[in-house]
Amino acid sequence: MPETIRFTLDGQEVEAGPGETIWDVAKREGTAIPHLCHRDAPGYRSDGNCRACMVGIEGERTLAASCIRAPSEGMVVTTDQPREVAARRMVVELLLADQPEEAYDKSSRFHETAEAQGVAESRFPAMAPQEVPLLDNSHVAMAVNLDACIQCGLCVRACREVQVNDVIGMAGRGHAAFPVFDQDDPMGDSTCVACGECVEACPTGALMPRGAIPDRSDIDREVKSVCPYCGVGCQLTFKVKDDKIAWVEGAEGPANENRLCVKGRFGFDYVHHDHRLTVPLIRKDGAEKGLNVDPGNWSTHFREATWEEALDVAANGLKGRGREVAGFGSAKCSNEEAYLFQKLIRQGFGHNNVDHCTRLCHASSVAALLENVGSGAVTATFNEIENADVAIVIGANPTENHPVAATYFKQFAKRGGQLIVMDPRGQGLKRHTSHMLQFKPGADVSMLNAIMHVIVDEDLYDRQYIAAMTENWEAMKAHLAEFPPEKMEAICGIPAETLRDVARVWAGAKSGMIFWGMGISQHIHGTDNSRCLISLALMCGQVGRPGTGLHPLRGQNNVQGASDAGLIPMFLPDYQSVTDDGVRSAFHEIWGEGEVAPEKGLTVVEIMDAIHEGDIRAMYILGENPAMSDPDVDHARAALAKLDHLVVQDIFLTETANYADVILPASAWVEKTGTVTNTNRQVQMGRPAVPWPGQAREDWWITTELAKRLGLGWDYTHPREVFAEMKQSMASLDNITWERLESEAVTYPSSGLDDPGAAIVFADAFPRDGGRARFTPASVVPPDEVPDTDYPFVLITGRQLEHWHTGAMTRRASMLDALEPEANCSLHPRTLRKLGVEPGDLVRLTTRRGSIKVMARADRAVAEDNVFLPFAYVEASANLLTNPALDPYGKIPEFKYSAVRVEAIAPADVA
Ligand SMILES: Nc1nc2c(c(=O)[nH]1)N[C@H]1C(S)=C(S)[C@@H](COP(=O)(O)OP(=O)(O)OC[C@H]3O[C@@H](n4cnc5c(=O)[nH]c(N)nc54)[C@H](O)[C@@H]3O)O[C@H]1N2
Ligand SMILES: Nc1nc2c(c(=O)[nH]1)N[C@H]1C(S)=C(S)[C@@H](COP(=O)(O)OP(=O)(O)OC[C@H]3O[C@@H](n4cnc5c(=O)[nH]c(N)nc54)[C@H](O)[C@@H]3O)O[C@H]1N2
Ligand SMILES: [Mo]
What we know:
Blueprint: E1 5-9, E2 12-16, H1 22-28, E3 54-57, E4 64-65, E5 76-78, H2 82-97, H3 109-116, E6 142-144, H4 154-162, E7 168-171, E8 178-181, H5 197-201, E9 207-209, E10 221-226, E11 235-241, E12 244-250, H6 262-266, E13 281-283, E14 302-304, H7 307-318, E15 325-328, H8 335-349, E16 354-355, H9 363-372, E17 390-394, H10 398-401, H11 403-414, E18 418-422, E19 435-437, H12 444-457, H13 463-469, E20 470-471, H14 473-480, H15 485-492, H16 496-507, E21 512-516, H17 518-521, H18 526-539, E22 549-552, H19 559-564, E23 571-572, E24 576-577, H20 581-591, H21 604-612, E25 618-622, H22 626-629, H23 633-642, E26 645-650, E27 662-665, E28 674-677, E29 682-686, H24 699-709, H25 719-729, H26 738-743, E30 746-747, E31 773-774, E32 793-798, H27 814-819, E33 824-827, H28 829-835, E34 842-846, E35 851-858, E36 866-870, E37 883-886, E38 893-894, E39 898-904, H29 907-910
Parallel strand pairs: 1-5, 15-16, 15-25, 17-18, 17-21, 18-19, 20-31, 21-22, 25-26, 26-27, 32-36, 33-35
Antiparallel strand pairs: 1-2, 3-4, 3-5, 6-9, 7-8, 10-11, 11-12, 13-14, 13-27, 23-24, 28-29, 29-30, 32-39, 34-35, 34-39, 37-38
The structure holds ligand MGD (2 copies) and molybdenum atom.
Residues 357, 361, 555-556 line the site of molybdenum atom.
């Protein structure tokens, strides 16, 4: 380790730690040195090109750029002598000459800097009018006004080094050097993914979020909160003007370090959409249930009600029905709201029929993790990839679905880390990989067993770790003997030699991590898939150290928290089993009234089946849209229509609300207070930035009011009280208090009030009997429905960057909808040619369950016998097609594999 260095700054003796520049030390000491090309934020390299931060160094003839200059022992540095002060002013004055007359952004860092140095005008000639670059307004979310550009290169570093999107470069020289997008395309036509990192970095307003023009500082208030989209849990600051979100800035959260993606930066005007539910609604007598309500004009089917009436009607339809009731809670709401929801179902109806979208998501991963590791959460934060030398990403598409996590993965690869991606589809991470295994869909177990076979065969496993930390190794080893890569090659489609190579790279890793997503979990053998990944990590000792770990990338912003809070039919909060007498009596103690039922409840897809069978007759659905997100959605919609009584609590009149008897208008995430837990186990505070519209209310309030009408003695008046109650039964929240969360994010487990929490767990023992993790062998199980002559293609459903699940939010976010406005599927160009379909034409996709028409894109990343289909579009609902067959352990449906027919649509048929 380099020693601390002592030097003199403006006559004071100061110290510099390892890696600190003069600028850093000055800042720490409270001496502000101007800076333009230097951005004081994690991930940004200083470049020293703008000369706005010049300082004097004794004995040196020229001034030095303090943002890149490291101090040396005994150095004498001045920041306040006439020479450097004049030089810095000159730099700003020269730059000001070229600024547009009417500054786009008077509050930009450049203008602040000029003002602070007393530079109001420039003596130097402005750029010749013919040289002034034209405005580029081609992008829906950002405006480019290169007239204001000072060539500092921060946007290039933002795009290439921080987000690793490699879209922006510099072209030209000297005065005429300007940022360009993908070789001279206007920004709107480039491959830009609109993460907005460049607008955040730009010090002059040459790049601006459109919502912030003309003046970034023209806001009423700033509110720090968490992004409501994915499980990465980015912290951000809402800039609010006239009670509307004007623009958004990344904040320095532990997971995102200021970074955001397109949804987190530009995807918030859905909360101001005129489709927002603002009054409680009751179905009109005789109004037919079905997908027939215009969310902008519900009065055809619903009438406005007071809260009193709506809550009474909602509660009366549920009251006294015991086992006939089921509830779907929400992973979009807070921890406190999830906790109250499961408590309401359990306490109010005396059974455990409560579940949520985790069932459709990582249920199988969690089943395998609980079985073999003893805990369903990640063993290490995704940011730990910083300390890894090999990483596997399998069945996950983070550049689109966890874009900020992906920036860390790409940086890892850029630094020389070996990135192994396994996915039947080529995807955004492909160009960063050392190994890209594009294997056959559904063939994960064969591929992973083959890799593990090689590790055994070539004696590459970690004997010591296995002996000390695991059980069932001998059985595992014997099982793997059946899976040589030469035999598995035909099943998974990856050459044996590649499988051997990957096995050697993984087993040779000093520190390796495994990340996975829906491509692993959403299969009838999803639990087996996850078992293989756990075994692969264990046999090489890749858990419990920096840069190692198992990380199922959690999906919804609060799916980790909602699961922890007990929105699961087998578990009370903190995965305490409902079948355990001691657990139930402990909850009885805390809750006071109502016994917790000893039988596991029904899961999401089982509940839909039970409606058809007449066993479930009433439902309470909070912040979920099963009429779009369940598999075989015709069957699910028919079930919702069959209910005697359906209460839906949402922010929009969703497809599911089309079947409701009562609709309760909720406040959106940006309008409420509550905590959420991200994929990294980091618990963070969400704060209200704007008021809720009309009579909409916070979800916890609505659930509490319902509980009162069901006869439960609830008297919560603030989420803080709910959090305090949660802590009584949830050891995971030990040392995490509401007060702490008001000022910091805390990772669980946290060992003390000063401990920010453990990024890595299970170094010494696993939370299983005996402290050991387990190897559970998995055999090859074919998909439930394999292609045949009638249905010759494989249908893979999933996601795309701009849209969120069922589209409820993102199709109402103007910029996101403008970027991706039309239902689409992707096929290989050769397949399209064979079918006689031009890219952009409609095709018909048909499975045994249903048929849709959808626009086809040509995409070489999709295998020739596959179709990829996102599920965000009601006009072409993917889930009319998907297979509801379930994994026996996780009860998760096979969203990632159905047999499908693809047909060109005759022009006459297009309309
Ligand atoms: N933009 C956006 N981001 C999201 C979401 C969203 O709706 N939109 N949703 C959030 C949620 S809740 C979740 S759960 C996550 C999901 O995030 P991901 O897990 O990344 O989601 P998917 O796109 O469903 O599928 C991931 C990949 O699995 C691959 N795959 C398909 N079949 C197989 C297979 O048989 N084996 C393997 N190994 N891979 C296969 C697909 O090609 C795809 O690239 O995203 C979260 N983030
Ligand atoms: N074909 C196919 N289907 C899939 C998947 C797949 O890969 N392929 N993936 C599955 C997975 S992993 C998941 S997680 C599910 C997701 O399925 P869902 O959870 O049903 O989908 P979302 O669209 O996220 O629904 C969230 C709902 O919450 C509402 N909402 C947002 N904020 C709030 C709030 O603060 N309060 C209230 N009350 N409501 C709010 C939104 O308007 C929306 O209606 O889809 C599953 N379905
Ligand atoms: Mo999910």
